[in-house]
Queue: 2 jobs
Job 1
Amino acid sequence: MYSIETNELTHSFSENEKVVNAINLQVPSGSIYGFLGPNGAGKTTTLRLILGLIKKQKGTISILGKTFEEDRLGILNAIGSMIESPSLYGHLTAKENLRILQKIYQCPKGRIDEVLEIVDLTNTGKKKAGKFSLGMKQRLSIAMALLHNPQLLILDEPTNGLDPNGIIEIRELLIKLNREQNVTIVISSHLLSEIEKMVTHIGIINKGVLLFQGSLEELHQKQSLTSSIKFGTNDPEKTKEILKKHELIAVVENNFVVLPIIDNHLISILNKELVDAGIEVYRIEVVKNDLESIFMDLVK
Amino acid sequence: MKLIYSLQSEWLKTKRSAASWLCLIGGFFIPLIYLLYFLIKHKSIISTGNDGSVWEMHFQMLLRNMKAFLLPMGVIMASSLITQMEYKNNTWKQLCTTPQSMTTIFIAKFMVIVLMTIKFFLFFTIGVLISGYVPCLIVNGELPKESLPYMYLIEENFKVFVLCLPIIAIQYLISLNFKNFLVPVGIGLVGLIGTMIGSSWEKIFISPYAFVFLDAISNPSNIHIYKVSLVHFVIITGISYWLFLTKKEKG
């Protein structure tokens, strides 16, 4: 079952440019779904459409098996969200900000202290939210999203502006929520490295088009498919010629002969042939493309 | 029930807000001026020697001064400040993703402005009483013999409140649709000054800013200002509600 499912979701702010183009998002229940894309790719617009903040133009959106037309309030009651920058009342304290939402959700008052403890903001006292650091504001926003124990958490770039320590803290918090409370989490980011350690599924968007969607394992498979093998020899050009006989297309990069990944048996045959041809082979190396470069390749 | 929770939530937002301070300072401003005047001049509502009800005279004197400019300006500022709080704090998106219908959000926010205006009148009336009682005790060493005309004060406050409703409605409409705080305040100020300049025109009642002012000066068109004020309020609020519901982007 999917917590979020969109079908051909399309949106444009002007006639010529589709900001979101026929997106079929599928967020499995219980997953941590990383929604990746460079700045301006259409991530925020997609998330705003999902939350009903922008009027839908084309396509369908189903959240927790229901559409907004069927049960808007029921859906919103089950979602916690943070879109773009933190939404806080600067003249109020952390507790007062949470109290505003507690009134609406009618959740127990004790929950305010609980979520403040979760995000480590228990000692802010009478300090106004407007005086908080960006990291504290982000954490308070997450506390606000968690207040009513949502089944689905939608966080748009929640680690923006956080220091490495803050990023790790948020990551650990989200993993804990997902594992212990089975909260489905959608987290958007423009940096794969920032979220690859926590996500179970990934969707990559660029220029409004969903380029990849699947589990982290599927992305890793893609990673091995795009890996290459490097031969370090004393005569790269002659090496290239020998490889060509096996219909292998190789290129010379920094004095190394680089070719797409091949199986181990063929590597040993090639090695033998190179040695027999009088070439000194001093290095054979498998080069794995990191996920970041796959991401960059996809969004190029 | 949902509306009550939403209203409570909206009311919490006004804590320590600029609108709350404005309400407090604005409500006590004119009474404080009179209190100082009485004390400096060594006068009181007893020693002013009126034939009629001293409280009624005192209340009307303060109210007249307030109605001329301070009250409409205060209502313009407070209505804009409360509504603009969401833009200022970037919280419309947060508010619109809470499980409340757009109608509930619209009504709850509007009711907070109305309640804040009522609070303003409450502060003003308390100020009227303080500026009446304190000089009597200090200057005359006694309290006025006339009992306080509670019903009169409530009635008069209510009448002025009705005249404020079109200003609240128009400022609410503008504030909901413009992100920049200067737009509603600027339009309000221009509307108010324009109405003052054109106050002798017999059709000045087409301006939602006219009624409090018309009540303070002469009424050139002899219209029933309370009824027309309510008509303005209903029409403007209806338009405002429709615009709010049909907004393409919420937050």
Job 2
Amino acid sequence: MKNHSKSLLLVLLMILAVVAFTACGGVSDPEAEPTAEPAPTEAPAVEEAATEEVAVAEEEAVVEEAAAEEAAVEEAVAETAEMEAEAVPAEEVAAPEMAMADALNLNIAAGNNQRTITYQQATPLELPDGTVISQGALKPTWQYIQEQLGIQLNDVTIQDQSAGEMMDVSAATSFDNAAIYGGNSIAEDFMSYGAQGYFVRLNDHLEHMPNFAAYLAASPNIAKAITAYDGGIYFVPYVAEIGNYARVFDGRETWVTALLDSDEALEAETHTLTPSYEGFWDRNATNVVDLQNEAAGGTLTRDVARDTLLAYIAETYPELENPSDLYLGETAVYDMDELVALWRVIELSPNTLSKVTTGDVIDGAEITPFFVRQTSYREDVLRLLNYFGGQRVHGSDSYAARFYLDANGELQYSYAEDSFLAGVDLLKDLYEEGLIHSEFADTSMTDNVRNSLYAADDSDGQQQFGFMTYDWIASTTASNPDVVGMLPPLTTVGDSDEFIHWTENTRVIKPDGWGISTAASEEEINAALYLLDYFFSDAGHIVQNYSPPYGLLEGETYLAPDGIEYPKFNEWMVDASCELKSCDMSGFLRDFIGSQIPIGYQKEIGFELQTTINHGEEAWALWIGAPVKSTSYESEDPLFRLVPPVFSLTEQDTAKLGQLAVGEEQVDQIFLYITGAETAVDSVEALKALYVNAGIDDYVDVYRNAYARMTE
Amino acid sequence: MKNYLLKTQSLLVYALIAVCIALFVLYLGFMTQYYSLFYDGTMETFDYYKLLQVFNKEAFSLSLIFIALGLVLLMFGLHKYRPGLFGLIAVFIATVYMSLNSITILQVLPKYKNAYLALDFSSMEDYVPSTFVFDAGLVLQSIMIVLSVLFAIVAVMTFVQRLKEGKPLVRKLI
């Protein structure tokens, strides 16, 4: 028995030892030493990231890290300044002395297979040297770059995938199927995933990107705008032609002159409308909309609307030589109410205007006073609110940029503001009167409305005609020789009583671009850095903005009205763009040549200026000459200052936003409300309630904090 | 004496299981008190929240194992019978595991509590700091250690008592 007990005790002790060993280290000690940071090429798992955070729990460490992060943004900018001194001259694009991969996989999504780097046209393109580009091959620009850099470029993009979707899907596999990811409206993803370690921190590699480093050093605003909260720059942005106007108001010149300056062109009209809109401004002795409404007696006819408008112009603007001068050219001084009065006359004149346009009165002709190019541009209708007292709509050139800076420099979410929603009620009135295109908000309709309302006047059976839009100068004026640029309606902005011509929409740093996955090999990362930098070299800049050399005139330049010389397209390019893309050079470059794809580069206005036709140059001159006040990154008045293209959100911010429901649902409801859909809410108060219930206050707080971090 | 020891053993089994369940519930709702640190606080409180979340995840996993060990004790019938050899081994495994892990938790919980109290809550409107779950954890883990030790001693005594009565070393399946 005694031996038995001894054996038993031994067994128990052994078991005890084993259990004790396995029981050790059951929970984490908050004061444990920090774990080593993962290698850049290892995409960290969420738990790993959490574990790293554990290590900084000690108060001092937290304080130190916070201070480091604050300094990091400044460092990022400063680093670029240091790089300027070391930067290799931009012309040098010779391969750097570092191990580089022979091939790179690129995943560049645009949600449109025409806009990827792969040629997707059914019609092959024959280049000047006889090379034929067929469907499925890399577009010419990318083949040229491939040859220049000696790196094979493989397009692994799912051709129709949107960039946002591409990022979501790629994140699930830690961005391991390509070395470079790019596309439109994904800057926030780059910053967020970059800070988590999925994208290469470019500030650490600027010695391999001398041209980009020099660019950032010369553009501190851009460097700041693309720096994430941790001080890292994780993508190279697409920067539009900053300092130039973007969209402008365009309208048919002869429609205004034919209706207002004489009776000669007038045809009998039977069309009527029931006034809903009641006028906004009281800057003159009388309000023309009030006058029209009173004269209408419930039903407005063309003659009543026109006579009232002409009488009003004669009384209010006796100095004008012609009534149309109120709207056209540099004499334009109309406000939104006066524009609505004109739209009414236009809406009520289908017979007259169809004859003015085609030479014959067209039975059943439909006139649309205001339209946007396509339903995905429906927010351009909301931009009209700029002219109802200067209400801000978008803080940057993106429909998703719904934050703007108020006069105090505080970030505001425009779409949920009471003043904005009150303006929505006014747009609803305009829509009810038929002054805005009936299908402008129907996103199931994907047609290019500008084509049918501007560019199809001579088509057989054409019955639809549009008067005015808010769009880009070159392509819009090219679509119809009668279309001219119009100054924007006069409005006050902010607390000022001064009426000015202004536009909130301008060219900006876009939330588009590309970055390098940390899952790529070191050789691939080196090659990718080389490729990204190439677009900031002189050669890469020209190729991406214009075309490979065979599309340009050698030794000749285009002298722009502003005195700047730009590379000049040769005849082959101009002819090909007209043959294959209706003289839309921008579309031709993107869809056929492969230049101007929204990846990281500085866009230049030269291509647009030299391909502007019809009244396009006059439109430029009109806006520049006025001048139309616009927004900028440098404006001292916050109300005219652009917000960054994207806000760098921390994990905490993202988590907070995940608890909120502010998004496209409320935007959809705004458009449903304007168009009077059955599924719409019944008042702007209900629209406001949607935002409040979705957590708009917390949503705004998150972005205000993010903006504060970026501007500290 | 025999009945008294067995009754004590039985009570200790139930008490241990009750504490295991209490710990399970505690760690299940451990973070509820601190969601505000995540959503409403500063980066510092956010970092602390993530730190605490890791601890909570580990402590919750342990509480599940505690419950499983408690069920093992029930399976061996230790709430009704004196242990045989295998029952005693189960007792040792359970009590050693519970007490050693409880000691670990008792060592780190005060650190988490102190780190929590060192946070700056001034930016969080209407937030009332509370250390209840830390204190509850400290109390329950302490009780678990005491109960485990007592249970192991009593189990040994009942095991020896049983052997002295000439009962076989191995008691059927237990």
